[in-house]
Each structure stands twice: as structure tokens, then as C-alpha cells.
Amino acid sequence: MPRAAERLLLGPGPSPVAPRVMRAMAAPVLSHLDPDMMAILDDIRARLASTFKAPDGSFSFAVSGTGTAGMEAAVANLTRPGTRAVAVVSGYFGDRLAQMLERYGASVTRVDVEWGRACDPAQLLTALRGGGADLVTMVHAETSTGVINPVAELCALASARGAMTIVDAVTSLGAHPVDAAAWGADAVYSCTQKGLGAPSGLAPITFSARARGFRLPPSREASAFAQGFGGPAVALAEAGSAEEQNTYDGWEARLVDLSRDRNFSRVRHGRGPGYKQGVTRQRVIDAYDALKARLDQFRLNADADLSAALQQEMSGAIAQYEALKARTGALDFLDLLLKARDLVRGNAEVRRGFQARFTHIFVDEFQDTDPLQAEILLLLASEDPGEDDWRKVVPVSGRLFIVGDPKQSIYRFRRADVGIYRDVGERLVKAGATSVKLTTSFRSVPQIQACVNAAFAPVIDRVDQHRDAERVGKKDELLTLVRAHLPGAGEERNRLFPLGAGRLELAHDRVQVGGDHVEYSTRARILARGIALLHDLY
To answer: In this structure, are residues 124 and 132 in contact, taking their beta carbons and an 8 Å threshold?
Structure first.
């Protein structure tokens, strides 16, 4: 590879790199997981805080990328859709800040300053008085023009009106006094290849304590800048100042976000027994596992509390919605369930009538049953028509059959609860039911369906004598069904079952229905056996 000639660089950047910096870069490479690397990174953060003159409670670090990566890290963490932003534009990079704010969904008011001139604080004051602002951005030393803006005065105007501030110090850091604490700036970013005299590839940045307390929505679509420039939207550190510790809702949101953070939940454990001097890796892993378990439980508790609070908050809107449905006579599926439940639960005569009518109840996919459906089901299966509390119901033996797989409980969005599945199953077992674990599925196979129906037939009790006439009609229907499914002819037979108006005769490989002989296939044998067992039922 040809070696580039040595050049004296006198532009705003990149700048010549000092020999001692080049020698430092020739040091042996360390793993990013090496304990010594952690110490180096901590030292860099401390030195960056000193370089920025950042106030106590700030968080300073280096973003991987150029100055634009630092710009996006600041904008991404302090902007949300609808943020009212005022952008001081006195050159190319002030304009880029305004564009990035717009791409992150901010409503941007531009303070356009003639290129080559510094911003007059009165111009910013006019914009702030005109529409207010949540965020004000500015460039300290505009690279494209070389102009220094009065950042201290601009930040003071913004802070006095409650707005946060982002300061671009890409060209000025290391070449002109930068004092984040004195300015009162909330985010200041720079780069390494200009005033700091180092190779490009890092963007130093510092966030104030107030900026660290700002919370973004849980999710955000990737911006065009993130895709185009490859700059990461860097998340803020989760720790906060002493003032923030009294904001319980804010801390709850931080902890819930942390528990859901994929980077936190899928942390790498690293290698080797030692984590750092005097601390074993296993000790750190155990501490992490304990913290994650507590965070997960905290998230569950927080979500439950949020649900209750949301119910109270929405009660007025729900009441109006119910009144609107009542005026229009409209009912949705949930309304029908509720009214059916109220009818069954609130009237003993209704329960008694349904319990007499539905002597056997079979429910498939029971893991997707919601509490309302379970309540109706158990009230119909109760041995006591006077009991109106479904949780106190004792089901009639042999009346209720449920089938389900808790691993397939996937309809939580429509209030299905696998806990209901387990609770009802336990109640049935206590009432004398048998729990059978199925290990093979034969869905949609007619022969197996017929066999299962036949196997269940002896379990079902005989119906009352007053339904004899109805049974004869059913027998005729069964004969029609057999004739429809068993075409052909045959003669041999060895077994006879009288069946209502006709008769069913089974042979080794033939079947005769009435006076007609039909072929007797395997399917016919299973179906005929099922009909015979149903005949025994009657």
C-alpha cells in the first residue's frame, strides 16, 4: 500500500495528530471485555467531563462515530414527536441540526442568521416569546463560517423559559473555551479530529443531570439520519440525580424500560473466573440474575398498578360509550357475554332450565376460555341450581368435559387466561373427574373421530323415558347416515342389532342395513361400531 505524504493541515479539521498520540495508538490491543479496558474507559469519561467542564451529575462519554453521531445522540435522546424546538441556524451545521430535529418529529422554529454573523440573543428571545420551546439548539463555533455564537447568553435565555439546550462544539472543543457548567447547557457534543488533535472516529458528548432525567417513549421508529449516517441513537444512563429520586413515576418508567431492554436482558457473561481484582465473575453473574428477577417482578407489579389506574382514568369515557350503545341498541360480543352471564347468574329458574337441557357439555381449546365464559360454563354444570357463585360450584359428575393445552394459550388480548384453565381443571379433579394427558393428536381423521365418539358413549347416562319418541327419530337419522356413507353390496353377516324401524347386521367384511347389503370397510366397521354403542345407550 503506498504511504501518504506528510501534510500540514490548517483547516478546521481534521488536524495533525501529535506524535505522542500516535505512539499511544500503537499500544497492544485490549479486549473490550478486559477489566483494564473498563478502567481506561472510566478514565476517559472523567477526562472528558473535565474537558467539557461539565457540572456535577453530568454523564460524559465518547460515542462511536463522527461529530454527526454525537449530534444524533443528543437529538435522539432529547426529542420526541411534537417537541417544540427552536434551532439557531447560522451556517451549514446549524441547518443540519434543524433537519435532524424535523426527522425526529420535532416541530421546528428556525432562527435564521446571516451566514458569517453571530446570532443576536434578541433574535432567539423573539422566537421564544412567539411560540415557546421545549428545546433550543445552536452551534458554538460554526465550522462552515468560523463564527463564534454567544452560547452562554443563548443558553441562559432558553433555560429561563424552561427549555433544554443542545450545543454543537464540534470545532470549538480544545480550540476555544468550552464551559458546559457555566453555560447551563444540557447536551454538548464534539469530535476528536479537530481541536482535540486525535484521529477521527469518536464523538465526545456530555449530558446534564436534567437531560438524563428526560424520558423518551418506549419505542421509536428508526430515523432517516440513523439509516443514512449510521449514527446510533445512544440511550442515556439510567442513574439520576438526588432531585430525580423523588419523582417516583419517572423512576418507575426507568425501571420498567430497563427490565424490557434487550441489551440488559441478554447481557454477555464473558469468560474466565475473574471479573476484576477481588471480584469473581460468578459473583457478578449472581448479582445480575438477582437484579433481573427483582426487576421482572417490579414490572409485573407496576403493570398491574397501571391497569387499575387506567381503569379509573377511563371510567368516564367508558360510561359515555355504554350510554351511546344503549341509545343505538348496539351490542358487541362482550356485551352478549355479559348479558348471558347476568341472565344465568341472576336467575335460579334460568339456571335450572339450562341445567336440565344441557346434560353433557364438551369444550375444546379450553385454554383460550375467558373468565366470563368459564363462569357461564360452571354455572350450567352445577349440581345445585341455587348456587350463583361460579367459584363455589360443584360440577355434576360426568356432565363437563374440557380439553386444552396451556402451552397454546395465546389469546390474552381477548381476555383468555390460562389461570382459568388450571383453576377449572383443579375444581373438576376435586369433584371426582379424571385428568387424562393426551400425547398424540389425530385431529380431522374420521375413523378416529368415530372411535372417540364411540368410546365416550358408555360414559353418557341414559336419557329420561319421556324422550323415547325423540330417540326413535334419532335412530332413523343414524340409519340414513349409515346408508349415505356405506355404498355397495354384500351378503355375509354374523351379528344383528335391532335399530328402530330398520336393523343393522355386521359381518366379518360385510354389513346389511335393513334389506340392503353394502361393503363393509374398515371405516364402516368403526362407524357401525359407534352406531351400535349409541344403540346400547338407548
So the answer is: no
Cα 219 from chain centroid?
10
228 and 119 in a common domain: yes
- Asked whether 147 and 178 are in contact (CB, 8 A), the reply is no
Largest CA distance in the chain: 113
Does pLDDT of 532 surpass 60? no
Number of alpha helices (DSSP H) and beta strands (DSSP E) in the chain: 19, 15
CA atoms within 13 A on the CB side of 330: 8
Query: From edge to edge, which strands make up the β-sheet containing 510-513?
Result: 495-499, 502-506, 510-513, 516-519
- 346 and 389 in a single domain? The answer is yes
DSSP assignment of 387-402 equals ---GGG--BPTTTEEE
- The pairing of strands 202-207 and 59-64 is antiparallel
The rounded distance, in Å, linking the Cα atoms of 427 and 468 is 34
Q: Is residue 7 part of a domain?
A: no
From residue 518, alpha-carbon distances to 38, 322, 501 in Å are 85, 61, 18
Range of the domain at 452: 446-537
86 neighbors 128 (Cβ within 8 angstroms): yes
Q: Rounded distance, CA 102 to CA 509, Å?
A: 81
Query: Per mean pLDDT, which range of 332-346, 449-463, 482-496 is the poorest?
Result: 482-496
Spatial separation of the C-alpha atoms in residues 307 and 502, rounded to whole Å:
63
In a shared domain, residues 128 and 269: no
Write the DSSP string, 310-378: HHHHHHHHHHHHHHHHHHHT---HHHHHHHHHHHHHH-HHHHHHHHHH---EEESSGGG--HHHHHHHH
Q: Are residues 193 and 322 in the same domain?
A: no
Domain boundary residue, one of 246, 275, 301 = 246
400 burial type by CB count under 10 A (0-12 exposed, 13-18 middle, 19+ buried) = buried
Pairing of β 84-89 and β 510-513? unpaired
Say how many domains are in the chain. 4
pLDDT of residue 404: 83
> Which of 367, 402, 430 is the endpoint of a domain?
430
For residue 14, say if its preceding peptide bond is cis, omega within 30 degrees of 0.
yes
Same domain, 240 and 268: no
Sort residue 146 into left (φ over 0), alpha (ψ -120 to 50) or beta.
left
How far apart CA 97 and CA 111 sit, in angstroms, is 12
Q: Which of 44-53, 59-68, 275-284, 380-389 has the lowest mean pLDDT?
A: 275-284
